[in-house]
């Protein structure tokens, strides 16, 4: 889905919906950008999600004016896992006016009509424009060029045209009929209006659509260089059968004979039309169009998908994986070789995209890992190391080394003495610098660059003392498959963060590493091996340092045809798309008016090559080998074919589901098996009973014959009961099937009995058995008879079990059946028992005592009710934890086995405890303290679990902040079984009354910083913090930061991104101070600030540097500080004081530049400038944005502390656990 957003150059912005070319235009000067929204992973757009995306884009348009300075790929943190948002200047849809500009007084703003952007099912123009037409052959034909035609239309007697519209002759492109439509006097404007029109639109069938990229031009017949040509693209349909430009060119220019457009009353119009095949994203068939299938994205596994596709398309590697020994008893989720074999087999033979869940489960990954994006280079190394280990001792041992291993030699050679030290090392991939290198060859040049060890850096040669030397690397041999990892991500020491290098970096189709007489090779290299390589695949990263999307361009057979593997979708691509468009760097938009000297609009390309795979020419026949079913183990073929058959059976099963119904038959044996083991409430779990799939038209009597065969019960001895769901959410047998019902079909009975209208019919099979346990006829059931089910509870062992059922009279009393119940339980005939009716268990348990002397009718007992009974406990044994049925069922309903973890190891269970959901906060911490052998439970602090991130919640549970355990485990609509705990040094209630602040204390004259944790009551003030800090400093006995003198005055500052935002007054309460995102800095107040005069100014001074590149964005770094400046003081005088304060050597300080900043704009100062004049206002709102800037390189060592850390931050490297 793509929406065009037009940004007016006056910095206004609007989200425009496109309209018909014949609509009335509105003059404005605009820049057009395209915003693309694609579903990520396995998500797709439904109507509702499209509306959400549009709402997001409308809000997002507010930020577009600033984003135009840095067009890039953006990922919304909240929606990044669902939708992929990208922004770029719209190149293909912009107006491109190629002409000499008119005189200034004749310039007029014009607006292009934006291609259609309504949300329709089917292809979107910008996406289609990037894809080549797909051939139907599975082989690799050369990329097809779209049908293109150049049509010239000569219009004589142009000024004498009296019609409002004028059509050209019909011409045919790509089998479609087209014509040009013009409005000679303008379409309600004073411009020529011109469109491309579908000539036979009125006669085309319903739902027709065709897509075209085209240009329209008015030819300058005097000098063709001044011809006006405009390009666009559109998906034509019945609603929009013409498309083009309402304001093509001013009529005043067109009708001026001196301009060259109207000569001899004749106008020449040209149209270049290219018709492309419409690729529908939603119905696109990768296998049909390319012969290959994609991989499903589990959430954030695109990096893995691109690597797996690359490895799969190295046939020698695939063959080796197939030959790894596996057995039919292996489980794919527990065996990496088998999972990889299964994945490769499906990639080779499936018709649809392949899931990777089996493989990631074999890695030992959980859902959390699937939603965490990792580095593809890191995964490549870890996976290859794991496979290399798995291949040891097998027929394919050494395959990884044969394919990917090369060797280089590190050497140090003395210049003045005969001494040389060498060390041979192996590599599986090479890390090549991108920054400062224009192409792969430049990176190799840098890789083998010789470093001189001289001066203070001389080499200590054994037996020769310190010597001048040369240090470098040369290659001994290169592998058959050369993997080049491009260092697109680097650590920026100046900004103290990782950055992505988007510089232009070229790579050739053929790579000659023997160039310049083997300059990269060591003297020991085998010169008989020709190191000429052909590019096989390009892995691309699109995005920034904090996230992005991976995909791969691969040519599996090294032919001219490239393919793009982008998760589930595979498309044919040309060599330009695979190579040149992945170089990175900046792209410049052609100007609409070239003669205006406007600066070109450039934008950074954030999609660029990240990993390259080359195959050596001399080895390509061996590497690109044939892999067929003979290479696949028999058990694997059988297993996977069986999976395919099962998949097909499921498909057929679903397709025929409307013809069948499922009958689930529960018996006494099922109830006995489940009660007290799997379930405790109601009678049976219907998912675990015998089910029959029966055609709906089958007579019920025929179904009874099936039951007879299955259970060995004659048809005439079977009595079936219908189950019913009661209002209290219990599920019980309700009534027996009547004789006339049993004469109906299965489908009729299901429809009559099941109001929910699902495909299942649930029955209870009543079988009466004689003394020899053989089935006997069931007694006749009258309206007085009630079918009851009985459970027996053993309070001493806290065990409940099913003992059987009885048919009783509603007028009888429970006392009448006590003998039978004792017999069923194995008790003495006169044993005293207590009876309870199990009524319901949701949302709470209801189990009431049953009076043995009241009739069943009076007790409101009916068919299907459950009665639980037990021996009453003597008083001396009443210490049983659950002495009766209600207390036991209450316990069962609310018990919860909780997994406890520490915050230091949030992924590992420390131990488990069985607790009750009804336990109070005090109950939980008391039991936990007992488990930890801790005397004071109040020193335990608990933290709940986030079910979505699989991490602890950011905020811990407050002391008695929740009522029950169930509240601790709840997370929105989910329930967890994990709790985190920590043992505090003071009781939690006391801690909650305190505020802990992390304060970085800076020495007045030395470059020393110490972090202090200040813990004070929340009602304390900043003055109390300072006093506590002084106490800590004076009590320090280690080599920590000290005060310059005992009576030094301290202050507390708020620092954020290397700027001072606030000086806290000593009276401010600390309760509202946030040290999680802002740094709190304590320092001494300098004497000069205490004695500041009435004409002095206290100004902010910050360190800064500028980014390289076009934008030169200012980046602050280092420690900011205050400085007193005096009236009339020049920069030269201030520089002397700054140098003394910061202890900067003369050599370094001479390179520093100074600028006054106001709202982010630097104004560089000269030594003679009076700085005081730049800071006239004493109390400026946002004073941190008016400062003296010190521009220099950040050479300071990074702090060993992190003052601001989120409470729970877990960075996870790529790991394969199995």
UniProtKB/TrEMBL annotation:
It is an enzyme of class 3 (hydrolase). Pfam families: MATH_2, UCH, USP7_C2, USP7_ICP0_bdg. Residues 148-273 form the MATH domain. Its EC number is 3.4.19.12. The keyword Protease applies. GO terms for cellular component: cytosol; nucleus. InterPro entries: MATH/TRAF_dom (IPR002083), Papain-like_cys_pep_sf (IPR038765), Peptidase_C19 (IPR050164), Peptidase_C19_UCH (IPR001394), TRAF-like (IPR008974), USP (IPR028889), USP7_ICP0-binding_dom (IPR024729), USP_C (IPR029346). Residues 293-617 form the USP domain. It comes from the Eukaryota. GO terms for molecular function: cysteine-type deubiquitinase activity. The chain crosses the membrane at residues 56-79. GO terms for biological process: jasmonic acid mediated signaling pathway; maintenance of root meristem identity; protein deubiquitination; proteolysis; regulation of protein stability; regulation of root development. It catalyses: Thiol-dependent hydrolysis of ester, thioester, amide, peptide and isopeptide bonds formed by the C-terminal Gly of ubiquitin (a 76-residue protein attached to proteins as an intracellular targeting signal). Belongs to the peptidase C19 family. The keyword Membrane applies. Keywords: Hydrolase, Membrane, Protease, Thiol protease, Transmembrane, Transmembrane helix, Ubl conjugation pathway. This is ubiquitinyl hydrolase 1.
């Amino acid at each position: 889905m793509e929406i065009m957003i037009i940004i007016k150059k006056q910095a206004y912005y609007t989200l425009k919906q496109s309209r018909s070319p014949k609509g009335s235009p509105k003059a404005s000067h605009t820049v057009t950008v395209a915003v693309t929204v694609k579903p990520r992973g396995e998500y797709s757009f439904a109507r509702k999600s499209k509306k959400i995306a549009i709402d997001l884009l409308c809000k997002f348009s507010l930020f577009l004016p600033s984003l135009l300075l840095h067009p890039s790929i953006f990922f919304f943190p909240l929606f990044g896992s669902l939708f992929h948002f990208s922004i770029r200047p719209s190149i293909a849809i912009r107006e491109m006016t190629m002409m000499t500009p008119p005189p200034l007084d004749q310039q007029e703003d014009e607006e292009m009509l934006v291609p259609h952007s309504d949300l329709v099912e089917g292809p979107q123009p910008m996406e289609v424009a990037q894809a080549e037409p797909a051939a139907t052959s599975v082989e690799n034909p050369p990329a097809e060029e779209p049908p293109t035609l150049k049509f010239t239309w000569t219009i004589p007697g142009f000024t004498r045209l009296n019609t409002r519209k004028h059509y050209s002759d019909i011409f045919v492109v790509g089998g479609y009929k087209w014509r040009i439509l013009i409005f000679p006097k303008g379409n309600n404007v004073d411009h020529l209006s011109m469109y491309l029109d579908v000539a036979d639109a009125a006669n085309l069938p319903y739902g027709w659509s065709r897509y075209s990229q085209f240009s329209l031009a008015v030819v300058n017949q005097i000098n063709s260089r001044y011809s006006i040509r405009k390009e666009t693209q559109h998906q034509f349909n019945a609603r929009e059968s013409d498309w083009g430009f309402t304001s093509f060119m001013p009529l005043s220019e067109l009708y001026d004979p001196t301009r060259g457009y109207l000569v001899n009353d004749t106008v020449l119009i040209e149209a270049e039309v290219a018709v492309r095949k419409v690729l529908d994203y939603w119905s696109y068939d990768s296998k049909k169009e390319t012969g290959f299938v994609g991989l499903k994205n589990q959430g954030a596994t695109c990096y893995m998908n691109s690597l797996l596709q690359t490895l799969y398309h190295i046939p020698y590697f695939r063959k080796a994986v197939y030959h790894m020994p596996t057995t039919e008893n292996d489980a794919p989720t527990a065996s990496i070789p088998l999972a990889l074999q299964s994945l490769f087999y499906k990639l080779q033979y499936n018709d649809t995209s392949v899931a990777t869940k089996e493989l990631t489960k074999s890695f030992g990954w959980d859902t959390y890992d699937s939603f965490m994006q990792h580095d593809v280079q890191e995964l490549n190394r870890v996976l290859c190391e794991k496979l290399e280990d798995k291949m040891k001792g097998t027929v394919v041992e050494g395959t990884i080394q044969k394919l990917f291993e090369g060797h280089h030699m590190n050497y140090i050679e003395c210049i003045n003495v005969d001494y040389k030290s060498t060390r041979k090392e192996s590599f599986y991939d090479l890390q090549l610098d991108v920054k400062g290198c224009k192409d792969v060859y430049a990176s190799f040049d840098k890789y083998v660059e010789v470093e001189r060890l001289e001066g203070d850096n001389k080499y200590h040669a054994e037996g020769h003392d310190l010597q001048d030397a040369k240090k470098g690397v040369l290659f001994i041999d290169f592998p058959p498959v050369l993997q080049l990892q491009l260092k697109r991500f680097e650590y920026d020491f100046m900004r103290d963060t990782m950055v992505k290098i988007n510089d232009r970096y070229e790579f050739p189709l053929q790579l000659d590493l023997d160039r310049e007489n083997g300059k990269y090779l060591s003297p020991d290299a085998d010169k008989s091996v020709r190191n000429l390589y052909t590019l096989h695949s390009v892995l691309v990263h699109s995005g920034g340092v904090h996230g992005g999307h991976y995909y791969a361009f691969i040519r599996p057979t090294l032919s001219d045809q490239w393919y793009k593997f982008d998760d589930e979708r595979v498309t044919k691509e040309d060599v330009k798309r695979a190579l040149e468009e992945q170089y990175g760097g900046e792209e410049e938009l052609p100007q609409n008016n070239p003669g205006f000297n406007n600066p070109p609009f450039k934008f950074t390309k954030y999609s660029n090559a990240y990993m390259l795979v080359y195959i050596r020419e001399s080895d390509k026949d061996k590497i690109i080998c044939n892999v067929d079913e003979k290479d696949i183990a028999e058990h694997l073929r059988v297993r996977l074919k069986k999976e395919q058959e099962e998949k097909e059976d499921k498909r057929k099963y679903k397709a025929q589901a409307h013809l069948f119904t499922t009958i689930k038959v529960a018996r006494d044996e099922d109830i006995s098996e489940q009660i007290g083991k799997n379930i405790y409430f109601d009678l049976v779990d219907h998912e675990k009973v015998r089910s029959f799939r029966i055609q709906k038209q089958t007579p019920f009597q025929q179904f009874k014959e099936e039951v007879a065969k299955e259970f060995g019960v004659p048809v005439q001895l079977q009595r079936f009961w219908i189950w019913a769901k009661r209002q209290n959410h219990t599920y019980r047998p309700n009534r027996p099937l009547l004789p006339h019902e049993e004469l109906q079909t299965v489908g009729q009975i299901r429809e009559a009995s099941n109001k929910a209208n699902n495909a299942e019919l649930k029955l209870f099979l009543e079988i009466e058995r004689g003394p020899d346990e053989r089935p006997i006829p069931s007694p006749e059931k009258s309206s007085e008879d009630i079918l009851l089910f009985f459970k027996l509870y053993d309070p001493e062992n806290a065990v409940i079990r099913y003992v059987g059922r009885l048919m009783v009279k509603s007028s009888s009393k429970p006392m009448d059946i006590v003998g039978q119940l004792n017999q069923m339980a194995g008790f003495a005939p006169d044993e005293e028992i207590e009876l309870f009716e199990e009524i319901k268990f949701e949302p709470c348990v209801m189990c009431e005592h049953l009076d043995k002397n009241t009739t069943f009718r009076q007790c409101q007992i009916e068919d299907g009710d459950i009665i639980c009974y037990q021996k009453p406990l003597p008083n001396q044994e009443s210490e049983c934890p659950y002495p009766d049925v209600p207390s036991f069922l209450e316990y069962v309903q609310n018990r919860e086995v909780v997994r406890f973890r520490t915050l230091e190891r949030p992924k590992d269970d420390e131990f488990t405890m069985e607790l009750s959901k009804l336990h109070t906060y005090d109950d939980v911490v008391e039991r936990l303290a007992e488990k930890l052998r801790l005397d004071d439970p109040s020193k335990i602090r608990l933290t709940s679990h986030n079910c979505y991130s699989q991490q602890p919640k950011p905020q811990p549970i407050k002391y008695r902040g929740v009522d029950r355990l169930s509240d601790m485990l709840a997370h929105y609509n989910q329930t967890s079984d994990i709790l985190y705990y920590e043992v505090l040094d003071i009781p939690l209630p006391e801690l909650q009354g305190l505020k802990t602040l992390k304060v970085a204390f800076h020495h007045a004259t030395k470059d020393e910083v110490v972090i202090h944790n200040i813990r004070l009551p929340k009602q304390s003030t900043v003055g109390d913090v300072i006093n506590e800090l002084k106490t800590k400093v004076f009590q320090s006995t280690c080599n920590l930061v000290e005060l310059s003198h005992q009576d030094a005055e301290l202050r507390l500052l708020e620092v954020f991104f290397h700027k001072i935002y606030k000086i806290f007054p000593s009276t401010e309460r600390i309760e509202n101070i946030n040290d999680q995102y802002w740094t709190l800095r304590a320092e001494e107040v300098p004497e000069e600030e205490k004695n500041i005069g009435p004409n002095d100014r206290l100004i902010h001074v910050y360190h800064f540097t500028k980014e390289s590149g076009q934008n030169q964005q200012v980046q602050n770094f280092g420690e900011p500080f205050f400085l007193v400046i005096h009236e009339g003081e020049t920069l030269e005088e201030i520089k002397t004081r700054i140098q003394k304060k910061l202890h900067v050597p003369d050599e370094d300080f001479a390179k520093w530049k100074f600028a006054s900043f106001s709202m982010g704009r630097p104004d560089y100062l000269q030594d003679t400038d009076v700085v005081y004049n730049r800071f006239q206002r004493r109390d400026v709102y946002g004073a941190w944005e008016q400062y003296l800037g010190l521009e220099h390189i950040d050479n300071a060592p990074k702090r060993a502390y992190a003052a601001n850390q989120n409470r729970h931050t877990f960075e996870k490297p790529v790991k394969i656990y199995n």
